[in-house]
What we know:
This protein has 194 residues and is an alpha/beta fold. It has a single domain, classed as Glutaredoxin, CATH 3.40.30.10. The chain has six helices and seven strands, in the order H-H-E-E-E-H-E-H-E-H-E-E-H. Helix 4 links the parallel strand 4 and strand 5.
Amino acid sequence: MFVLLAMLAAGVINHRRRQAAMQQSQVELLKTRNGMDAASSAMTALGSPDPESDLRGKPAPAFTLVDLSGKKVSLADYKGKPVVIDFWATYCAPCKLEMPWFEEFTAKYKSQGLVVLGIDQDDAVSKDAIAQAAKRTGVTYPILMPDKTISGNYKLGDYLPQTFFVDKNGMIVEEVIGGRAKDEIEADVKKISE
């Protein structure tokens, strides 16, 4: 009986620690005096993309990549649909927190044609390991393998996740570096799905 109670207590403590860790991994964006959010300001100072590389209001750079099964997937395949392009990696805790939300939003905004494309950013990780990580998060949307040009075309920095919200006209409406709360992500999904 004592062993059972000890295991139950350990499980509760472990669950609370995991929830606290997930909450800490979310980035709260605060506005600074010049209008740039504090996280972007800090990331710019650390060498990631500066405001000059902001892609908002510009056409999403075209790409054709291969998914985990070897099928070619092109951004042009989704012309006329709202698209979320999520750059992620298997080691990225905020990425894995957001991925089930993207899956949920794909179903919720299906009637508006929402498409989510995950683009892996792991170095030296097998396709099987990437597929297993995606499966563990419950993802069924396409996971794509990067080529040599996509990071430069999307001006990726050193921080993940990096997510682009592309409207039905192919324009980038929002670009987000780092993890966020579920309702903030959904607000951006709504912007491109209207």
